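job 3f2a | input accepted
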Amino acid sequence: MTTKPLTKSITFMQALALVVGMIIGSGIFLKPGIVLNNAGSPWMSILAWGVGGIITLASALSVAEIAAAIPKSGGLYTYLSELYGGVFGYLLGWVQAVISYPASVAALAIAFATYSGYFLPLNAWQQKLLAVGILAFILLMNVIATKFGGIIQTVATVGKLIPVVGIVGVGLFSDLAPGFGGIGTAAAGAGFGAAVLGTLWAYDGWISVTNMAGEIKDPARTLPKVISIGVIFVIAVYVLFNIAVFQALPYDQIVSSPTPGADAAEALFGSGGGAFITAGIIVSVLGALNGYLMTAARVPHVMGERGQLPFSRVLSSIHPKFQTPANALVFQSILAVIYIFSGTFNTLTDLLVFVLWIFFTMGVFGVFLLRRKLPPVQGRYRVPLYPFTPILGVAGGLYILASTIISDPLRSLIGIGITLAGLPVYVVMMMRKNRV
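job 3f2a | predicted structure (436 res):
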């Protein structure tokens, strides 16, 4: 293993596929009913998707300015380290590298195996073995070449859009449920705010592309473009998909069904619609799995370069032949396999929601610190409508934080405790580094 810089092999289209592919997961097929139930009517639901999209876009445009000014691998971990100080970046990196990313990878691998059961019935152990098998395949492809991971991401992103485009293309012109299927009663939903909150979760994931900045060609120009284009594209897809579902199904069926996307496909395409959507979900989850493993490994790799983790020299090295962060990829995969067999991945990710949104909101606010620290550079991307755009993004983050701690204060506090547990490791690693 060597410690040379990673090669810049990620193209514009592959970076764009990462943004789109990591936002659009299985949620697009499952969320319409939940958001509609909270909003109370189809038009209010569409508005909720639009508002959630605007808040997400505001955050994305703000972080894109930071990405253009600090085009280094590590994403939010690197930005917090540069703008707030090393300890803040470390605490995020600790949570991401040890728990959040590998637990998310484990959850996606299990989701792939679970949905595959639609075509091939599997028991619990067989599902876990299939999950490990698909993870091993994705790991191998990303170890052999980063460009293979990029190719998988591009193909999977295009593949997941096929059923979505099919439903949108047919659903928009259908008249199976005239007038968007009716209007619910006031008691049907928890309110417009809860509906917007549900959409914000569905828009999550775009920021992980910044983890790969050091391997993206011309990252200072490419990252703002792919983040902006990707988020705007997903907003359009989500809004149009929901309109198509509302055209295909009556209100009561949408809010009562756990799988409104599959129901809409069956209404539009007949009995084969369920298989059509399930195949789309499998491809969608595969793309998200590849994207998460691909981007996740860059955090421990960069932390290793800075000597912030045990075995930093091992984690920071790259494969001499393939020029990939092979050890960091294997490290993330081993943790994911542990979480797969222990069954703790959902619990761990739920515990860290509050903490991760603290760091994310700090990242969006970081654009204000950036402008104080760094002078403007001619031709470099700057967030439009400053300061209103980042203010909107920060407001969205604060709204999620308030909603989370009110609804589940115990989990929020446990998440903070897990995060702070990384401080002793940070102190030890810094002491060791200073002795060298």
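job 3f2a | Residues 86-116 form the longest helix (31 residues).
job 3f2a | closed
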